[in-house]
């Protein structure tokens, strides 16, 4: 990967951790469709207005999403809905970086670069190079590592109005440090989907106590 030297006038890139969740903090649910089947026109229009970004992911997310792009379907699903197809197509056309020591070049998913070294140091260099907006997709362990390293500028969550206590998969915040969040944006889509966006600060210990 080409890294541009950091000069005094270079603008640092922003890193956005971006999650889509159920209200109880799951990334998906067994037997549920994409977006939990609750995406609406306002939300879909907002998705279509997002700025161009380079998407960062780990190997597991790459295998899953590239499989969808190649025509594979989740268990129990025979076809994607148009909204899901549009989401996958948009990712196919976007620039992507996958961090993995197990994948091998050449990667089959278009517009994807493989980085085999340390993900934290690679993202730190990408931010320093001023290479535009960086945003994560899935990749829970990658997001935790980047947050712990102090590299995350914005933390955005879109919460769908479901609780998937019986069927939820991939609990997002397990293993996270304590994090203080300063809200910078909030919005409701279609009268039911809630977006919250924060600037995160990782805490060494709870604000009212000594280190545990």
Overview of this structure, please?
By secondary structure, this protein is of the alpha/beta class. The chain has one domain (17-202): Dihydrofolate Reductase, subunit A, CATH 3.40.430. Helices cover 24% and strands 29% of the residues. The chain is built from 5 helices and 10 strands. The chain has helices spanning 41-48, 59-69, 82-93, 119-128, 140-148; strands spanning 15-22, 26-29, 54-58, 95-99, 112-115, 134-136, 154-160, 168-171, 179-189, 193-202. The strands form 2 sheets. Strands 5-4-3-6-1-7-10-9 form an 8-stranded mixed sheet, sandwiched between helices. Strand 9 and strand 10 (193-202) form a beta hairpin. Helix 2 packs across helix 3 (82-93). It is globular. It starts with 14 loop residues before the first strand and ends in a 10-residue tail after the last strand.
What keyword list fits this structure?
Dihydrofolate Reductase, subunit A; two-stranded antiparallel ribbon; disordered N terminus
What's the layout of helices and strands?
Layout: E1 15-22, E2 26-29, H1 41-48, E3 54-58, H2 59-69, H3 82-93, E4 95-99, E5 112-115, H4 119-128, E6 134-136, H5 140-148, E7 154-160, E8 168-171, E9 179-189, E10 193-202
Parallel strand pairs: 1-6, 1-7, 3-4, 3-6, 4-5
Antiparallel strand pairs: 2-8, 7-10, 9-10
């Amino acid at each position: 990967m080409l890294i541009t030297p950091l000069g005094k006038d270079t603008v640092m890139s922003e890193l956005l951790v971006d999650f889509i969740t159920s209200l109880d903090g799951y990334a998906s649910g067994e037997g549920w469709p994409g977006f939990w089947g609750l995406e609406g026109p306002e939300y879909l229009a907002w998705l279509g207005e997002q700025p161009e970004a380079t998407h960062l992911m780990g190997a597991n997310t790459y295998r899953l999403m590239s499989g969808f792009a190649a025509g594979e379907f989740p268990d129990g699903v025979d076809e994607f809905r148009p909204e899901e197809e549009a989401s996958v197509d948009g990712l196919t056309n976007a620039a992507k970086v996958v961090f993995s020591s197990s994948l091998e070049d050449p990667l089959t998913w278009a517009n994807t670069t493989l980085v085999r070294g340390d993900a934290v140091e690679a993202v730190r260099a990408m931010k320093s190079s001023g290479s535009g907006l960086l945003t994560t997709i899935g990749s829970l362990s990658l997001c935790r590592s980047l947050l712990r390293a102090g590299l995350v500028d914005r933390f955005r969550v879109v919460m769908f109005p479901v609780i998937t206590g019986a069927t939820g998969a991939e609990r997002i915040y397990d293993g996270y440090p304590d994090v203080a969040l300063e809200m910078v944006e909030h919005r409701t889509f279609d009268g039911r989907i809630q977006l919250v966006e924060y600037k995160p600060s990782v805490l060494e210990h709870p604000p009212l106590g000594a280190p545990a």
